[in-house]
Design a protein that fits this description.
Blueprint lengths: L1 H34 L5 H21 L11 H22 L5 H8 L2 H13 L6 H25 L4 H24 L5 H22 L13 H26 L4 H4 L2 H15 L7 H18 L8 H12 L1
Helix pairs in contact: 1-4, 1-9, 1-11, 2-3, 2-8, 2-9, 3-7, 3-8, 4-11, 5-6, 5-7, 5-12, 6-12
């Protein structure tokens, strides 16, 4: 009886965790678009991550006196600046001129970039046929999205797309560095340090880009404040904690399905709430990106050909 209750509780916890990374991370693009209406982009992102790090540190202190002891600060700083700093900061900045749903689709190419960068600079293992096909499909879809979005939106300047591509590259590089450097450390403590350095990086970019003189505290709307609060509590703390918890319970391939669901959620919210344009070309390009990412993520899930399974079954009965 106790085992059955424990199994049911585990099932519901997994369902809630998947809902968090599927829905919450898919809605962060919408929240970002609301936040930057009255708060400069790098300032909104910097405040988000610094406060998220502070809240995470406060929670860690309840678990121990020195939660960040023996932490690899150099690795945390470098990966934090790449992930939360450049990876997220450039996305926020680019959403000044790119619809939120399109931003999510371009960032979906991260798993593909991870494969390519891992091959070129880390493991030196060439991707297989399925990964290569997925990379080509996803790349073609991203190019189609960029070209078509420029023709539809009009105001979307090339600098915004370059910012999105830079964000995808930074996030991919940071992911590979984190995979190698975070082993053997407390993941939540490492993430806390990452968020802090990423937030400081964004605040520095706010200074270099001249955002502080443009910050008008009196003009900040309640909607923007609520959006940043949502990003801090739900996007940076709850969803990421759910992500880490799922990685301790099930395979990484199952968890990374969020990369296929997030852009769908972002596109739907962009169309229904923000009234962002979506055309048949955008939809087809989105399918190309998602199909390419699926081929890269789920290489080990490819089923055996039907004829082979039938042949083995008939051979077993002979």
């Amino acid at each position: 009886m106790t085992a059955a209750i424990s199994s049911t509780r585990e099932w519901w916890l997994r369902l809630a965790a998947f809902a968090a990374i599927y829905v919450i991370w898919g809605t962060t693009y919408f929240a970002i678009s609301v936040a930057i209406r009255t708060i400069p982009p790098f300032i909104s992102g910097g405040v988000r991550y610094v406060l998220a790090a502070a809240l995470t540190y406060a929670w860690l202190r309840t678990k121990g006196a020195a939660p960040l002891a023996n932490l690899d600060w150099r690795a945390a700083a470098l990966s934090g600046m790449l992930l939360s700093g450049l990876g997220n900061g450039l996305v926020i900045w680019a959403q000044q001129g790119i619809p939120s749903g399109i931003s999510a689709l371009i960032i979906t190419s991260v798993p593909v970039l991870v494969v390519v960068l891992d091959w070129l600079f880390f493991s030196r293992r060439a991707p297989g046929l399925q990964s290569s096909m997925g990379t080509c499909l996803a790349f073609g879809g991203v190019v189609a999205i960029i070209l078509h979005t420029r023709s539809v939106v009009g105001a979307a300047q090339p600098i915004y797309f370059l910012s999105m591509l830079g964000a995808a590259l930074a996030w991919s590089w940071g992911t590979l560095l984190q995979r190698r450097s975070a082993a053997g450390q407390s993941l939540l403590a490492f993430t806390c340090a990452q968020m802090f350095f990423g937030g400081v990086c964004q605040l520095l970019m706010a200074t270099l880009s001249g955002e502080w003189p443009r910050l008008d505290l009196g003009a900040i709307s309640l909607q923007s404040i609520l959006a940043v609060t949502y990003l801090i509590v739900f996007g940076s703390i709850i969803a990421f904690t759910a992500y880490l918890w799922l990685l301790t319970r099930i395979s990484a391939h199952q968890v990374t399905t969020y990369a296929l669901v997030n852009p769908v959620v972002a596109l739907l919210i962009g169309v229904l709430v923000l009234h962002e344009p979506i055309t048949s070309v955008t939809a087809l390009a989105a399918l190309l990106v998602l199909a390419g990412v699926a081929l890269v993520l789920f290489q080990s899930w490819a089923p055996r050909p039907l004829w082979r399974r039938v042949w083995r079954r008939s051979a077993a009965t002979d």
